[in-house]
Amino acid sequence: MNPNRSAIARNHPDLQRMIPITRLRHLYRLLRDTVVSKDAHLCVAEEFRRNPQTLQNLVEESRLHFALYNNSGEGFHPREPLGALSTDVSKSPNAVHEMLRCVKQHGLMVPSHPAFNAGYVDYELSPIRTTTSEYENGIPSQARGGVDVLLANEGDRLPVLVEAKGKKDRNLFLGLIQLLTYAVEFSTISQRQRINETYPERFAWQPDGPALDVYLLLVEAPSCQFHPTFLGLVEEICGKILTPGSAVAGVLRRIVCLETDMSGTEAIPVAVKFCHGPGS
After folding, report:
1. For the chain, where are the alpha helices, taking DSSP H only?
2. Residue 47 backbone dihedrals phi, psi, to 5 degrees
């Protein structure tokens, strides 16, 4: 914490733009930057599979923590117009960027589960982007990156957060923790207000229900030989945490894992690997 800041209540208006580092974000950073081996990630995933309440507690504590933060007056990025792709993304041969171009034009269509169909809204959105802000530990914020794609469900316009993974990306468990971190942060009242102000009339929220759907999208399966193991663990974890009345169910309606081989010439063909929640 900045030693020059006087000790006042954390929810004081003067501190609302100080970015919380939630327990989920701590975990995501730890797995991304420090404890990076596949064996370590398998151990953590196995622990959450064995004791899903631990992950439930992380979600609930992180949601309450992040609710102290308010950057509702901030945009998500400087790109204009909203939803437009950058020149680099428009020309990139990267499979994830190719997927993004297809989804922007045609939406995300899931033939086997039409209730999962969603239309494109924008990409690379950070919930913590705030001008001249700092984290709780006093370090200036650098809110780079963010959720890969923001969609709107075609049926009821609930927001959908998409984390896309390519062949060279790291394992699906890290992707799940990353996506849960973003989902918790995007689900607070101030973030809903921020989304509504940035994308007016694009979304409809459930007043007494979960805030979001989340999709893990495999844009070509990761080449790691342990991918099937991680896939099985992640599917089991998701089934254990998305249960009626749980902390996760208070944030998420569905957790869906999709896969595409990018073989389509227009709308990309998408298959469901697993799904939990209504319509699954």
Report:
1. 23-29, 38-50, 52-66, 87-91, 95-106, 172-186, 189-198, 227-241
2. -65, -40
Average pLDDT over residues 41-57: 98
Query: Can you tell me the distance from the alpha carbon of 266 to that of 101, in angstroms, rounded to the nearest whole number?
Result: 10
- The one-letter amino acid code at 224 reads C
pLDDT above 80 for 54: yes
Q: Which residues pair with 213 in a beta bridge?
A: 160, 254
CB atoms within 10 A of CB 164: 23
Query: How much is the pLDDT for 3?
Result: 47
Considering only CA atoms, which of 172, 275, 272 is closest in space to residue 223? Answer: 172
CA 94 to chain centre: 21
DSSP state of 208: T
pTM given for the model: 0.91
Q: Are 97 and 86 in contact (CB under 8 A)?
A: no
Write out the two tokens for 120.
């494109």
pLDDT greater at residue 102 or residue 16: 102
Q: Encoding tokens for residue 118?
A: 């969603």
pLDDT tens digit string along 142-164?
666 789 999 999 999 999 999 99
Q: Residue 69 corresponds to which amino acid?
A: Y
The answer to whether 175 and 169 have CB atoms below 8 angstroms apart is: yes
Q: Distance between CA atoms of 86 and 206, rounded to whole angstroms?
A: 32
Closest CA to 195 of 245, 240, 138, 129: 129
